Amino acid sequence: MGRGAPNCLTCVHFHVTWDPKFPRGCRLFEIKTPRLPSQVVLETTGRHCPGFELSPRVKPKERHA
Ligand code: SF4
Fold first, then answer.
1. Sign of the C-alpha dihedral computed for residues 65, 38, 27 and 19 taken in this order
2. Which domain holds residue 16?
3. Does the residue 63 lie in any domain?
4. Is 1 a member of any domain?
5. Has residue 20 been placed in a domain?
6. 34-45 mean pLDDT
7. Would residue 16 be called left, alpha or beta, if left means φ above 0 and alpha means ψ between -120 and 50 degrees?
8. Atom 8 (ligand 1): residue with closest C-alpha?
9. 29 C-alpha to center of ligand 1: Å?
């Protein structure tokens, strides 16, 4: 992992909530937000999210996005 916040879009815990105001969700931390959940984790805890797990749905060429 690099120095930036993890890319939730490639994480197994990420999901789309279908709530127009809070469309991005994290099942691990039970967060719904209009931004990336990992940004909320960083702002709330002062640390990068420790829960990132690469989704098996991510194709190899997308793994470093
Ligand atoms: S576990 Fe971390 S990286 Fe994964 S979706 Fe949640 S906040 Fe994002």
1. negative
2. 8-58
3. no
4. no
5. yes
6. 96
7. beta
8. 8
9. 8
| pLDDT tens, residue by residue, 44-63 | 999 999 999 999 999 877 66
**Average pLDDT estimate for 24-52:** 97
Q: For residue 13, which of 54, 48, 59, 63 has the smallest C-alpha distance?
A: 54
CB 26 near ligand 1, within 6 Å: yes
The encoded tokens of residue 49 equal 């999210």
In ligand 1, the atom with minimum distance to the C-alpha of 36 is 8
**pLDDT at residue 63 in the model:** 64
Look up residue 1 and give its amino acid: M
Mean pLDDT calculated for residue range 18-32: 97
Is there an atom of ligand 1 within 6 Å of 25 CB? no
Number of domains forming the structure of the chain: 1
Whether residue 3 lies inside any domain: the answer is no
Cα 46 to its chain centre, rounded Å, is 16
